[in-house]
Amino acid sequence: MRHWLCKSEETCYSIADLERDGRAGWDSVRNYQARNFMRDQMKVGDLILYYHSNADPTGVAGIARVSKTGVADPTQFDPRSEFHDPKSTKDDPTWIMVEVEFVERFRGVVTLASLRKEPSLAGMTVLAKGNRLSVMPCDPDHFRIVRAMGRALGKR
DNA sequence: GCCAACGTTGGC
DNA sequence: GCCAACGTTGGC
Known about the structure:
This protein has 156 residues and is α+β, with helices and mostly antiparallel strands. It has helices at residues 15-21, 32-41, 112-117, 140-152, and strands spanning 3-9, 23-25, 47-53, 59-72, 96-111, 135-137. A hairpin with a 5-residue loop joins strand 3 (47-53) and strand 4. It has a six-stranded mixed sheet with strand order 2-5-4-3-1-6. The chain has a single domain, classed as Roll (ph1033 like fold). The structure holds a DNA duplex (12 and 12 nucleotides).
């Protein structure tokens, strides 16, 4: 089983939204590297650190799990969507996503600052300078450390 | 709002 | 294939 870190803008779709909905398509990703991770490497059951970007504070807010793979992102076919891709066809869709399900929500947020302060997380992909990927692999040890930090904040 | 860093586009 | 210009991400 692989581990991942996925970013979502908190105001766009937060861990609280996922908790409410139970599951959601990880749609609107328009970066080939992120798409390739979802399309080629994610498996049902993989665990995801749910990261809030553009948030106050920014950081890991909970855990999700891959519940379905190989789903065509519906926004690519919607002419009214800002993520509409007129070059993509239903027979051969460009943007393949996964569906994720809610696992747990931390009482607070494991902030980016606290991730940077933790020596055992040195080398974590999300901390790399200039990293703008919204979907990236996460070392299993790093995953467990961050989850423990989150749970130490108390559980809802 | 600023800006660093990176991805994409398109001219050549 | 190179690279400049532009757009986007995302922290601050």
